[in-house]
């Protein structure tokens, strides 16, 4: 069987399943760390902030993030399935790791430090890193890139919310 360069490798089902669990698990681990910072302030400090009128309810935000972290994990899996020796795949994995770390850092800045200003700076870097990851994933796997589109849209909305909170709470 001839495999085209860049196509998923001929790994066994068990190895692929392990890679899938690892990719999704890494994303949910980042979600858990970010949630630990969120839990420190969501019912106290955050509840007392003035918020923009387009702020969704808390239960909706949690549900959206749950789905987004799953989509990120699937996207990451699709890239991990490619030939990891290729430079564009290595760059994609690195960019994905950076944006995932910046996602956790945003939670720390906003909820941990209770600093909408620092969080706004952080989320701008996060947005840029997601966009860079998406563009890099386009070179590796279009489905992987497309799975990041809802994440980029949601972080765009979150950037507006962050900015609104900063402006409404001088």
Give a quick rundown of the structure.
The chain is mostly helical. It has helices at 13-41, 58-80, 87-112, 116-138, 142-146, 149-168.
Task: Describe the structure in your own words.
This protein has helices at 13-41, 58-80, 87-112, 116-138, 142-146, 149-168. The protein is mainly alpha-helical. The protein has one domain: TspO/MBR protein (Ferritin), CATH 1.20.1260. The radius of gyration is 17 Å and the shape is elongated. Mean pLDDT is 94; it is low at 1-5.
Q: What sort of overall outline do the alpha carbons produce when their principal axes are compared?
A: elongated
Q: What count of helical segments does DSSP give?
A: 6
Distance between the termini: 64 Å
Mean pLDDT: 94
CATH superfamily: TspO/MBR protein
Number of strands: 0
Beta fraction of the residues? under 5%
Structural class: mainly alpha
Give the biggest sheet: none
- How many structural domains are formed by the residues? 1
Task: Kindly provide the radius of gyration, computed on alpha-carbon positions and rounded to a whole number of angstroms.
Answer: 17 Å
As for the CATH topology, it is Ferritin
What is the name of the CATH architecture? Up-down Bundle
Taking pLDDT < 50 over at least 5 consecutive residues as the criterion, the unreliable ranges are 1-5
Give the helices and strands as they follow along the chain.
Answer: HHHHHH
Helix fraction bin: over 70%
Under CATH at level 1, the class stands as: Mainly Alpha
């Amino acid at each position: 069987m001839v495999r085209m360069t860049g196509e998923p490798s001929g790994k066994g089902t068990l190895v692929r399943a392990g890679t899938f669990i690892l990719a999704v698990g890494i994303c949910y681990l980042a979600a858990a760390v970010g949630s630990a910072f969120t839990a420190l302030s969501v019912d106290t400090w955050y509840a007392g902030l003035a918020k923009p009128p387009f702020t969704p309810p808390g239960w909706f935000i949690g549900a959206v993030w749950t789905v987004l972290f799953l989509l990120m994990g699937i996207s990451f899996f699709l890239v991990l399935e490619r030939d990891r020796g290729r430079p564009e795949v290595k760059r994609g994995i690195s960019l994905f790791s950076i944006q995932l770390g910046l996602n956790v850092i945003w939670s720390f800045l906003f909820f941990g430090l209770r600093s909408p200003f620092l969080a706004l700076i952080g989320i701008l870097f996060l947005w840029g890193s997601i966009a860079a990851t998406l563009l890099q994933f386009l070179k590796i796997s279009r489905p992987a890139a497309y799975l990041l589109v809802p994440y980029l849209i949601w972080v765009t909305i979150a950037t507006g919310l962050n900015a609104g909170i900063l402006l409404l709470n001088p």
